[in-house]
Structure formats: C-alpha cells, structure tokens
Amino acid sequence: MPPPDATYSIVVRVRRVTTEDAYVRVPVTDAVMAADLDADGHRHLDGGKVMAEARRLAGSGTAAWQVQEQEIDLHPVQDTPPDGR
What we know:
Blueprint lengths: L13 E8 L25 H12 L7 E9 L11
Antiparallel strand pairs: 1-2
C-alpha cells in the first residue's frame, strides 16, 4: 500500500510555438533588379529577388528578432517521455 502522503500524476505532452518577427534592410543593387527593361525603358525591382534576399539576410544572424507571440497547445502525438525527459 502506498504511503498516505503519496501523490499521483499523469504526463501530458505539450508544445510551445514561438513566432518572432524582424525587419531587414535589403540594399537596392543590380542583384535585386529585373533583368529586362520594361516598356517604359526603365529597370524595376524584381519582387521575387527582393524577398529571396530578405530571407537570406534574416538568416544571416544580423536580424533583430523579437517575439511576437507564444502559443502553448497540446501536442497532437501523446506518447511516453523518452529517457532523460
């Protein structure tokens, strides 16, 4: 028989998702310009190239990330904890 002050518990697996945001400055260089001239004879920014460069810069370690929100929810897979957890 367990001692009178014994307690019991159930292990529930949860997860925390943190969303962060940052602003990055994308330099306007030939690398982010459209290759061809438009009908007006000017070169314009290539939106896809700008966004690709923004992603690269965001992953370079120089972006000042800030937590936007945190959500804690039940993990969709409930199983026993691995050893050491």
